[in-house]
Each structure stands twice: as structure tokens, then as C-alpha cells.
UniProtKB/TrEMBL annotation:
This is Dimethylargininase. GO terms for molecular function: dimethylargininase activity. The keyword Transmembrane does not apply. SUPFAM superfamilies: Pentein. Belongs to the DDAH family. Keywords: Hydrolase. It comes from Streptomyces cremeus. InterPro entries: DDAH-like. Its EC number is 3.5.3.18.
Length: 259
């Protein structure tokens, strides 16, 4: 039976200092962010996910975006090495949880490779990896070396218009890739691509075969998903969106653990 665990990490008191690359810096309300993070975790738990908290990293403003620190394929983890040097101290505590509490096999991206988990989208056994600002060619090679022997088919795609591949595209439970077309470098890279009407509509977290977590800021995309027979579960993550975060980046789902 597949596991339903999800790593999350409490926002740092320094969240407002998080990196911004493609957006203007805006003031972040720390209290509201914490309340939004709690509600996000509650939405995961309401759909059967057990949330596992990585130790907080108060000195890492972007630590809450835990998705970027690791990529899972089956029960094997590849701990990333961020293209943003400032984010590299986020990974040791994530590795500790994976090894000591969850019993995963753990590999890691090594210099000169860089890879952020936000650049990796899995659709079945296909692993799309965005080659962009945070993930370099050597990171792509190391991802292939780690996961292809386990049965993954790694497909590299360019990312130039947004921070991460998953800022541009994610996938519905039926494997359809959804994206906001003006921000997708190559929609043709995906066998089934569906354009959504809002930038934040490109971001979904699959909760189960029917439900997807969506951003409250993308109501028209949520309507589109409902019209296709899915149940959107909107969460307000406005404070994280100000830092280029999206619903995917606040958790790492672990679906194939043996524990
Ligand atoms: N996977 C993601 O979409 N992560 C968002 C990371 C945002 C953070 N402020 C950063 O620039 O690294």
C-alpha cells in the first residue's frame, strides 16, 4: 500500500528576506504566512496525508519551500544542491529526516551540479527536469544517473521564463500537464498539455485520484479542473506567492515508502 507522508517545514521568522528573482519584492506578513502554512498542512492531513516536519531552520528565509531540497523516486531520495548558494544550508536537516525517520535511501547532487526540487515534475515514471536558473546540465546528468537505473525516464526541458519548471507546469491526477502558456518554454515537450487561464493555475498538488490542491489566487483554473471532473481544494498562500512560492513548493510527498 502506498505511503501518504508529506515533508513540510515551518516558515522562518526571516521569511520576508526570502529570495525573489522574477517578481518585485513586496512586504510579507509573517503572522499571516504562518496561519496560511498551518492551513496548508491541515488541507494535506484532511486528505489522508501524514505531515512530517523537518526541523525548522530559522536562519534560512526560504526553508519553508522544502520541495526544492529533495526529489523522490520510489523510496529513493536525491538531495538537491540549489542553484541559489544561499539555500544550500537547508538540506542537511532534510537528509536527516529522510534517513533517520523515514528509512529512505539517499543520494545527493554533488558539485558542480545544481538541482532544485522545484525543477522536477514526475508524471508516472517520466521525470521532467527543468534546465534553468537553478538546475544546470550537470544536475540533470546526476538526476539521470540516480533515477534511470530505477526505471525513470528523465526528460530535460528548458525553463527560462519562471523560477522553476513547476512554476510553469504541473500535472493533474490523470497525467495531463497543466501550464500557463505564456510562461511555458515548450508546451510541445508534454504529450498531453492543457493551458490554464491564470499563472497560479499552473500549480497543483495531487492529493488523491480526484482532488488537487490549488492556489486560491487561481479561481478560474480551479473551475476548469472541476469541469474536468476533479475536485479543487483551494488554499490561500498569498504570502508565499510574494516570494515566488506556489502550492507545490511547501511540501514533498512521499508515496512509496516501505515504513
Ligand atoms: N519550488 C518552488 O516553487 N519554490 C519556490 C522558492 C521560492 C524562493 N523564494 C526561492 O527563490 O528560492
Amino acid at each position: 500500500m502506498p505511503s501518504k507522508k508529506a515533508l513540510v517545514r515551518r516558515p522562518s521568522p526571516r521569511l520576508a528576506e526570502g529570495l525573489v528573482t522574477h517578481v518585485e519584492r513586496q512586504p510579507v506578513d509573517g503572522e499571516l504566512a504562518l496561519a496560511q502554512w498551518e492551513a496548508y498542512g491541515a488541507a494535506l492531513r484532511a486528505h489522508g496525508w501524514q505531515t512530517v516536519e523537518v526541523d525548522p531552520a530559522d536562519d534560512c528565509p526560504d526553508g519553508v519551500f522544502v520541495e526544492d531540497t529533495v526529489v523522490m523516486f520510489r523510496n529513493v531520495a536525491l538531495v538537491g544542491r540549489s542553484g541559489a548558494a544561499r539555500r544550500r544550508q537547508e538540506t542537511p536537516a532534510v537528509r536527516d529526516v529522510l534517513v533517520e525517520r523515514l528509512g529512505c535511501s539517499v543520494n545527493r547532487v554533488r558539485e558542480p551540479g545544481t538541482l532544485d526540487g522545484g525543477d522536477v515534475l514526475k508524471v508516472g515514471d517520466t521525470v521532467y527536469v527543468g534546465r534553468g536558473g537553478r538546475t544546470n546540465a550537470e544536475g540533470v546528468r546526476q538526476l539521470r544517473a540516480a533515477f534511470e537505473p530505477l526505471g525513470a525516464r528523465v526528460v530535460a526541458v528548458p525553463v527560462s521564463r519562471v523560477l522553476h519548471l513547476k512554476s510553469a507546469v504541473t500535472a493533474l491526477p490523470d497525467g495531463t500537464v497543466v501550464g500557463y502558456e505564456p510562461l511555458v518554454d515548450s508546451p510541445a515537450a508534454f504529450p498531453r498539455f492543457l493551458a490554464v487561464p491564470e499563472e497560479a493555475g499552473a500549480h497543483v498538488v495531487v492529493l488523491d485520484g480526484n482532488s488537487v490542491l490549488t492556489a486560491a489566487s487561481a479561481p478560474r483554473s480551479a473551475e476548469l479542473f472541476a469541469d474536468l471532473g476533479f475536485t479543487p481544494v483551494p488554499v490561500d498562500i498569498s504570502e508565499f506567492e510574494k516570494l515566488e512560492g506556489c502550492v507545490t513548493c511547501l511540501s514533498v510527498r512521499l508515496r512509496d515508502l516501505h515504513t
